[in-house]
Amino acid sequence: MSPAWNPAAWTRRQQIERGLVAAVLVLMIVFPATGISAYWSHQILIRTFLFGVAAASLIFLFAYGGMVSLAQTALFGIAGVILGNLATKGGPGGTSKGLHLGWDPTVALVLAIVLTTVIGLIFGAVAARSAGIYFLMITLTYSVIATYTLGQVTKISGFSGIGGINRYTPGWIGNILDHPNRLYYIALGVAVFVYALIRYIVRTPFGLTLQGVRDEPIRMSSLGYNVPLHRTLAFGFAAFIASLAGVLYAWWSGQVAPGNVDLPETINLLVMAVIGGLVRIEGAWLGAFAFILMDNYITSSTHIPGLGFGGTLFGGSFNTIVGVIFLVIVLVSPDGLLGIWGRLFEGRYLIRGRGAPPTIEPTIEAPEASQ
Amino acid sequence: MTSYLTWRRLPILLAIGVVVFAFVYVLFITTAPTEFGVGDWRTTTFGSAVHDPSNFLKIVLDSITFAAALFIVASGFALIFGLMRVVNMAHGSFYLLAGYIAYEIQQDMTGQGFSLQSSEVNTWEWLVPLAVAAPCIAVVGLFVQQAFLRWNQGQELRQALITIAVSVIIADQIIAHFPRNTSQGQRFGGNAVDLTWPGWTDRFVNLHIGGVQYSLARLVMLGIGVAVGVGLWLWLYRTKTGMIIRAGVDDRQMTSALGINIQKTFAIAFAVGSALAALGAVVWASQSNISSGQDGVWLLNSLVVVIVGGMGSIFGAAAGAILFAFVSNFGASYLPTTGSDCCTQYSSILTFVLIALVLSFRPRGLFGRGT
Amino acid sequence: MRRVTLRSWKTAAVLVMACAAVALGANGSLAASHAKVVKVAIMTDCKGAFAFGYDFDIGGAQGAFAQFAHGVTKNHAKPSAGMTGIHVGSTQVKIVGYGCGNDTVPLAITETKRLMEQLNADVEIGPLSGDEAVATANYAKAHPTKTFIIGTAGSQDPTMQIAPKNMFRYHGDGAQWNAGIGELAYKKLHWRKAAIIMDDYSFGWTSAAGMIADFCAVGGDIVKRVFPPLNTTDYSSWVRQLPPPNQVDGYFSAVGGTGTSAMLKAFEQAYGKLNPKQWIGNLFFGFLGADKVVAPKLVGSYVGGFGNNPGVHYPKVDAYRAFMTKLYPKIPADDGFTYNYYMAAKALVQGLQKSGGAVGAKLQASLPRSINGPFQISNGGFVKLDSRRQAIQDQYQLQLVKNKDGSVSPQVVAYVPAVDQSFGGLFKPTSPPPGRTQPPCKRVHTPWQGKIQLVVNGKITKQVLK
To answer: Which residues of A touch C80 (CB under 8 A)?
Structure first.
């Protein structure tokens, strides 16, 4: 069944949401041309797009696969490291770490994405029979392995990581150091593409089976579906998406290091996904935007007048403030900001502590009625 | 017999083969290098067990004593996880807070001087810091459980996220306020400080096997670990509260339906679990040191031990601790030294790869059972 | 049937535009600045292993601004409260922000971009740590109009292998800090064979490289290198890989702050009481002075330096200490974090004086290639920059001593003149950076070999180490 593009049949909520999304999209497209703030274009928004893509891979696995994966950050970093090793050149004027294979950047790009997807499939195959906390544990182990491997195997990375990757972009992109708006539009395009791709995949038979596996794995298995295989393929797809984000990050930052895949960064990605809302893909970009804004502006203002000792919260740094904000969001709305948004339409403006707050259980929606 | 050797069993047979080979390698095959920087796949630092039994025995003892320390901390985590299905991501922060509190108490008790030698510390001055830190952390844990975790039971991901937020806040506050009492005055920033074992542990014990002299302090640590294990076993299997806890682990709803105040039991279990983290902190800070950043390390250690051993089971936590400690220490000691730069430093990678493989073969952990 | 109301779409669109406008207004980058203001950012760590360095670094840099550029501090107890009134001639200097890193590359990049692109700083003083400096060096290469003066980073790459034209370092790297300590071990302690244990990461390798290069240069032999990974919990299996005390003359340690006491305690439990004559550590042994448990056991062991000379007295260094202590009483003036940022800021002031307030390439040409430093004695008291803008700096090696009040602190015992980054040609831009096997143990002639002067009771004597 094809999704019916019938605006007349949209509910009020869908109208408002789609209107907002369209307006934001238009704003994003014209933003660099207005020249309002280069910092916003090149730092805040590009990061929002690419971390949103990474968070989308995490939300996809949770909302449609029922798996909480802490390995997305590791795959994100691995893609960047592979790209760096393949594309950069050594020698004078080159960067000083990595294999320096100096291959054609387009080939390197394709290989980075393909290899990361393959690694994701292997990770998924190993983890496919686990569920719940065990799956989370295995993916956390992958993240730790990635941190140690990137840090200690100096041939491919080392603790300072690989630098200068953004000097070796494919010819059809050109020099993004001189023309950072190109990276902006590429990131925006990739974000839109990933969003559309995920929305498409979950409507295919594979996507529907995956949601069935999420809800009733035993029943699906008895119906003859190969549950571990579906989980593996879902993990591989999520790895593909994470690799796109990883490549974008390598181009944005120029450097990929073990600090990109360690435990705090993994938790940050989870925080982004949760703040946005774990059940809807749109939450990925919303959460990434909120987190990056918080990160950026709270660090700049370590002195909040009137609060605690020395102007920070109880003498701590902005980490305490981020922790408190995150705690409040999770306590008030487990579905993140989008959950609050949804509740505005359902007439519940306040969450009470007792009773049964909504769980983070995603629901299968029939294709026509989905938002 | 040949029917056992099917394709499906190939991974398990491979695994068994590798394990057997590792045993034989360590016990018989390997040799010590003749000079530094020269070696092949057969050389390791110490040589085989039959060639150098005293070092082999020392490493075995190192592993067992480290396992004891791991067990103490992980058993608290296992208690909370097994009973309440709460992944307490703040367990590491509780550990860190307990270590610093105990340090401050020990500093206050032993005077404000510039030296804290073992000989100056008696048993009382080690026990009182423990007696202060453990109840403090139990109270903190109890507060966290009552305020944030009591009313959203069953929502495991949400509870994990709440405890992540709590851990970020606690860790940041520790950096802001500890350590308060070093010989250079107040130096915040979460610097490394140590506790000290009582003076009588600062000697070697002659084990009368192969002329091995082993540190008494590490044996004391083993003793404490065994005592914790026995104490927990007695509590869980010989007291009424323990019986309720075991019943709650098996079937929470039924236990509650029988009219038992399961909430009170949860509260007790959380407090005891946090107190165990505190005990582990005091023990390990005496053995080694305490510094900011260790909260992440010990949380990871606890997670790995509990999940690999099998959740909800004290026996599982012990088994996981022994496996983790042995793999870490034997990896560091008996990985081949093929040259001056390989390979013992990769033991961390090896440990976590093995963890992932164990979890893939036994998704519920080595001794896990139930849902 | 619902009508899709265009009104709801338009309202939504207008709301989004309004939010964006408000957010950007808060950003402040719309305001054009008309006055001639040089914007400076100070990049340091407020999280991770070096979180305590935050106020030390800022205090050091602002100390130089106060002394040479009329800066007025807002809070004598807390340097990070800010400083105003800084001007060099008619040019105003504004500190636009303090960067908060955590010793890793990604946050260093994000913070550097925030400081240089959102807050539009022209000059960055920093960063603090080695890996951050490598990341900043790569960033600097891509942004030639910005100027970077390293704070205290100890990695070799930024000024050896990467060496961007707009990056300057007025202090030694991690290897330079340990210059001379190998010679001390060989000549004073008569070590011939030594083992070394180092953190398995870049600063561990760089610090160890200095010890190894210096020891091997005079004829010593490193018989074993052990590399425990970072965040090792149990050091017992690593210290057992070291040869027992009766098989080597001594041990070098480049194990970092959070692991130093853990490693030493594990060694004691494996091999018995620590013998100070068999242990030499890098600067982290100096930090041990705050540690009441391990420091007393190591009284007498030699400690690698940090480019400063705590406890040594002569007029210009005493003047520096007096000034800094009056300005920021809570910040130790002798601490390497404070001092190195001070020198960076001092260089910036001199550069601005010469360039007349211009930034960019003009400032980079005007930054001093030779600067007078309170802890520098050779070359007339001037720290010289080499062709890659790296300092050739005097180093001081220390020893842990027990003071009259019972405290344990490092005291300067050796003065090593004019240490350069290449160690007499051993380290080259084309050679691999320090690593597990780099440098190899080779006999070379370091420029300071045979020229190390002993320091007794805070006075540099004419006596040469033989």
So the answer is: 302
